[in-house]
Amino acid sequence: MDLNTLEAHKTVDRFYRQQDRVVQSAGYGDTDVALKIARDHIKTLANEIEERLKQPSKGDNVAVGFEVLLRQLDNPMLVAAATLQAALHSIALEEPIQATLTLLGASLEGECWAHKLTHDNPTLAARVERNARAKHSKVVKRRKAAKVIAAKHGFKQKRWGRELQAYAGRWLLDVAMTALPELFQFVQQGAEQTMLTLQQGAEQQAQEIIEDLIQRRPVFLPMQEPPLPWTQFHKGGPRDQRETYARPLLRTRHKDTGAACRGAIRSGEAQPALDAVNTLQAVPWRINTAILDVLQECVRRGLDVPGLPGEKLDRPFPPDDEDDEDAMRLWHLRLSRVRKHNRMLVGERLLLTEDLETAERMRHWAAFYTPMNLDWRGRVYAMTQFNFQREDRVRALFQFAHGEPIGEDTGDSSSGLWWLKVHVANCGDFDKVSKKPLEDRVAWVNNNLPQIVSAARSPMESLNIGWWKRADKPFLFLAACMELSSAMERGCSFLSALPVSFDGSCSGLQHLCAMTRAPEGGLVNLTPSNAAPADVYATVAAAVNKRVTVDANAAEWDEGQEWRGAVAKLALAHGIDRKVCKRNVMTYSYSSKKFGMAAQQQEDLMDVLDEEVLTGKRAEHPFEQYAEGDAERPSPAARYLAGHVYESIEAIINLPAQAMAFLQKLAKTMAHEGKPLRWTTPAGLPWINRYHEPNTRHIELYLHDRRITVRLSDGSKPEIDKAKAAAGVAPNFVHALDAAHLMLTANACARAGITAIATVHDSFGCLASRAKRFNEIIREQFVDMYQTHDVLAEVLAQAKHDLTQHNWNRLPEVPQYGELNLEEVKHAQFAFA
């Protein structure tokens, strides 16, 4: 090894040593396995960089200037190391491509700064490094401190600026994609977002990163000690308070929102919110080891259970006749879908591995905790990736650390066993039993007890697997079966620790109906009923079926619209049920329009049916040639269904639609003066609906064999983005209210001595022995919140206060309220069931 090569290796090693502690503050690129990946590929990348720099400079002044800087650095190995480190960090964070570009450019800029300092003044460079290391443990802070110290001693260097930094990121990423096609690839997430990921061939190395992250990033794991109570904006949650500086109580990037929250904390106005978060994050959990064993065995056997990643699909063979355009188009379409399926499996398997390793690590912990904080609307989120708010297979691993005796079996709602049976039926939802009266759900469980007990005792027997995996939530259902089986075997003294959950009935619409006293509240179970619960999704589905039937029977169509009749017949043949309409109805309350609903139909129906065809579960796609589309341009079938669903909802829902229009008008009126709409939630949190237009610059990024356009943000303009403010105001307002309801419920439960609480926004869980009173408190707090707060009048009053008087005439009037009697909600047993 010659001297130059040896020096290059020393430089790279020094670079990695300096970055070693980044992992403690969110730097994934320097984990041991990430370094191994980088070192495996650094020579190849460095060679490509060196070859690029041998070519004559061309392009504009920015391009030429950048290549001059690289030649001055004269260390392709170091440039390659910086590129790999930043790219792997960005991949781990799943950042969009524009963030990756920024990170790549900033990383190289820092290395160029350090090189110039070392070259111009070695003595000062040594002093700067020594002082920065002594004062700061985080690399990001060290870098900032180094520049400050160097500047004080006369060393200053002009910042690159956005344009040069963006060009650097583009150049480095283009080189990396050219040199390392076996390592990196791009994937499309949604209509506009592209992400850098690892190729499937690097999957094994990526899986090794997971274990390393678990070992070296304990702050992202659940804790064995209770989190610190939140008392200030930056004080509470994780025991390592360095983490709360980066992740404070409120997740917001707007300084004024953070300042308003600080003020509400100081004044005591936000104390109900603090109390609720502290109550929820203080809940001790333990791993449900029986479910963990089943999960691990399912993975070991490669069983096809909903919620677990399936098998990779084989590449389809091309048609024999390559001149057959239709056959080739179909082959390319299938090939694209197979690649998408296999690409998604990589991420799903990585996440499953991480979840299982996390649970296995905590298997013998007596208790663990998940610190929590809030988004800017007040919604409560766990700060750890492994948490109760996750999907079925993860949530089923959670049990309360401390159970309570299940109690006597009284055969009615005063019994914990009765509520546990309701929970079993809800999780299974066989024959849509969760849409039937509570007594019918209990009866279903009683009628199926032999099979329930068999599944609980021998979950891995083939017959039992075939049964419980057909449940609506397979692993939660199996956990409930195990709990019920143990309770019936051991009797009233059995310590039940399983969370028994109650979900809101289309929560967004419930809140809109409550704030407007809309009679449509009956459709979402805000009124008592002795019969089966109301089902707004089924109501909309029935209306859609009527509309589609008219289309299917139409004798004539305008020119170019004949396809609608064909799609209508296919839709009726496939069946239009509540499942087809559910997501559209749910998101209507959050201002979803026809196009958004069409994208949902594409994702939830067309793509799912296509997946079933690919995996052999279905012989052909029910919508044939009308199903091809994506989120950016949904298929004709998706657009057709979404249009009918939207129009059916509009015909059924009245006052909630008026409330959303009122909020949108308020947001636009405030934006007219360049101000955000703001308000204080019933839990005392400031709510500021702030959206700004970004400063953007379009950059052509050549991604090896194709071109995309990315947008580079230079911050935000002072003007409010009127369109985004209006589009976001209704969902943000409703989310703030369901968050406030959750907080008020948590506080009321704590006062009643119920502290084992499991929440997922509009879903509430508790011990079976406390279920009756817990369910009552949920409804009582819902009623009290809307009887105490006329929320639409409150937000209008705040807007009038914030607007200048000459614009008051622009303010809309509060919609006329309906005659829904909120007191009836207290007796509406299906409101949260």
Within CATH, the superfamily of the domain at 3-183 carries the name DNA-directed RNA polymerase, N-terminal domain
Mean pLDDT: 85
Q: What structural class results from the helix and strand content? A: mainly alpha
The rough form would be described as globular
- DSSP strand content: 5-15%
Radius of gyration: 29 Å
Terminal CA distance reads: 71 Å
What is the fold named in CATH at topology level of the domain at 3-183?
Answer: T7 RNA polymerase, domain 1
Features:
833 residues; mainly alpha; T7 RNA polymerase, domain 1; Helix Hairpins; 30 helices; 18 strands; disordered N terminus
List the helices and strands and how they pair.
Elements: H1 3-19, H2 32-54, H3 61-73, H4 76-93, H5 97-120, H6 122-135, H7 139-152, H8 161-179, E1 184-189, E2 193-198, H9 203-216, E3 228-232, E4 235-237, H10 241-246, E5 250-251, H11 255-267, H12 271-281, E6 285-287, H13 289-301, H14 325-361, E7 372-375, E8 380-382, H15 392-395, E9 398-400, E10 404-405, H16 416-428, H17 438-447, H18 449-457, H19 462-468, H20 474-490, E11 495-496, E12 500-503, H21 507-516, H22 536-552, H23 562-574, H24 578-588, H25 594-614, H26 636-652, H27 655-672, E13 677-680, E14 686-689, E15 692-703, E16 706-720, H28 722-751, E17 758-760, E18 763-766, H29 771-788, H30 791-802
Parallel strand pairs: 5-7
Antiparallel strand pairs: 1-2, 3-4, 6-9, 7-8, 10-11, 12-18, 13-14, 15-16, 17-18
Helix pairs in contact: 1-4, 2-4, 2-8, 2-9, 4-5, 5-6, 5-8, 6-7, 9-14, 12-28, 16-17, 16-20, 18-20, 21-27, 21-28, 22-23, 22-24, 22-26, 23-26, 24-25, 24-26, 25-26, 27-28, 27-30, 28-29
